[in-house]
Amino acid sequence: MPRQPVADDVLVRARGLVKTFGEFRAVDGIDVTVHRGEAFGFLGPNGAGKSSTMRMVGAVSPVSGGELRIFGLDPATDGPAIRARLGVVPQADHLDEELTVEENLWIYGRYFGLSGRQVRERARELLDFAQLTERARHKVDSLSGGMKRRLTIARSLINSPEVLLLDEPTTGLDPQARHILWDRLFRLKRQGVTLVLTTHYMDEAEQLCDRLVVMDHGRIVAEGSPRNLISAHSTREVLELRFDLDDHRDRLDDVDGVGERVEVLPDRLLVYVDDGDAAMSAIAGRGIRPLSSLVRRSTLEDVFLHLTGRSLID
Q1: CA separation (Å) from 242 to 70, 138, 258, 264?
Q2: Distance of alpha carbon 87 from alpha carbon 11, whole angstroms
Q3: pTM for the structure as a whole
Q4: Mind giving me the DSSP string for 271-306?
């Protein structure tokens, strides 16, 4: 079936999108626009509505309210046509561990109607891309977690999708495996694949996303590029102070006036400032001696904390 061209560069458009489960509104009237060639992210804690949104975009979960178009098509009536143009990387890998690495790709390719010759050629390309060529004839159960994740991504690309949906792509991976995966996704974006991902990792969102929305309780609380969100909702730097006491609210008077604002976490104070070293000197000048202190740049975690009063990982 020939692919219907998209009228403009908007591949995903949602207006007032709602998803309910009984009385519970998992997604509460959000507006989202994803453009061709960009990496777009949904950032938020578990339960924010990210995965529910992704399932609707993936045309596998019906819309409860509002409007959703993917490639200009309505998922309620054009689900198969939409899914044929998508690649999906779910939270769990769901690989057949009794088969070899290449056999997992062959079987998946046949689901999309590729011929035997086509699926073997495509599998060779994807194994090379995923750095799994040497493991092609190994059983899946012998792979590390990072290798299984790369194989899942390779499998999702078997149909040469225009949009790749990734739900928490690096959850449970060690730092080295995460960085390898980020590199593979960056290469995909350079090849023109549009990425749509969910994550609750602030560093992942900053590394991968051109633009993102911050979600909380099913709603969008902010939207923009990582840099613009940090600029709009936080300061350039943050001074973290830890004291030897149970309740850090008891030390709020010590830092009064030092920064633009102060956030109290169970184990530390976060003082939001433009110059962290100057703020640290001001604290020392008051004779205050914290147990430890750290100056760092602001992150998307600080944006979320400012907007919601909660950490991304509760």
Answers
A1: 48, 49, 16, 10
A2: 14
A3: 0.88
A4: EEES-HHHHHHHHHHTT---SEEEEEE--HHHHHHH
| Domains in the chain: boundaries | 10-230, 235-297
pLDDT of residue 314: 54
What b/e sequence results for 218-243 when a residue is b if at least 16 CB atoms lie within 10 Å of its CB, and e otherwise? bbbbbbbebeebbeebbbebbbbbbb
Residue 151 contacts by C-beta under 8 Å, 6 or more apart in sequence? Answer: 93, 95, 101, 104, 105, 130, 132, 140, 143
CATH number of the domain at 235-297, please? 3.30.70
- Which residues on neighbouring strands pair with residue 18, listed in sequence order? 28, 65
Q: What average pLDDT does range 222-228 have in this prediction?
A: 95
Whole-angstrom distance, CA of residue 218 vs CA of residue 201: 18
Given a contact cutoff of 8 angstroms between Cβ atoms, the answer to whether 298 and 235 are in contact is yes
CATH superfamily of 10-230: P-loop containing nucleotide triphosphate hydrolases (3.40.50.300)
Structure tokens belonging to residue 291: 């147990």
- Sign of the Cα pseudo-torsion (125, 126, 130, 131, in order): negative
The first and second tokens of residue 182, run together, are 């980020």
Answer whether residue 106 shows pLDDT above 90: yes
- Express each pLDDT in 263-314 by its tens digit: 999 999 999 999 999 999 999 999 999 999 999 999 999 998 998 887 766 5
Render pLDDT for 158-206 as a digit per residue (tens, 0 to 9).
999 999 999 999 988 889 989 999 999 999 999 999 999 998 888 899 9
In which element (H, E) is residue 151 found? helix 145-156
CA–CA separation, 175 and 151 (whole Å): 18
The C-alpha atoms of residue 297 and residue 266 are separated, in whole angstroms, by 20
Cα–Cα distance measured from residue 157 to residue 87, given in angstroms and rounded to the nearest whole number: 6
